[in-house]
Structures are given as C-alpha cells and as structure tokens.
Amino acid sequence: MMLHLGDSCMVFHRHILAILDLRTAEGAGTRAFFERARAQHTLVTVPEGAPRSAVITVDDAGTCRVYLSPISALALKGRRLADL
Fold this sequence. Notes:
Radius of gyration: 12 Å
Structural class: alpha+beta
Distance between the termini: 8 Å
C-alpha cells in the first residue's frame, strides 16, 4: 500500500517510521534531525503549501528520508489506517 503525501509524492506504508505534527515537533533534537536531513539531501519538501507534517521513512536499502507534507499529520494517519 502507498500513502499519498500531496502533489505527486507517495511512499510505501512499510517504509514509514513516524508521522509528526510540525506544530508540536519543536524540540532541539527534532530541529537537529531536520537540519541533518537537509545537509544530507534527504529532506523532501512536497509542494502545494506550507508544511504541516513530517513523514520519516526508511526504504529497503536503509536510506532515511524526511518528507515535509502540506497535509496534516492527523489526516495522513487517518489515510494510512484506512488503507491497512
């Protein structure tokens, strides 16, 4: 199954580690994680508006990616559960 993150961006359910609400993900460790992802070019911003959630994935090769989605974390979690 795939989860639609906005625009034409989709990820496999099995690759999702976490879905974070960006309104509450304000800790120093979280900011450092996002900065590291940006520096390593593994931060993907999904177009269509201001980011509202972050979806952290690890693919089958072990590559971590962080997707910033304009769709709320609550809506993404609901979509994911509906698809399972």
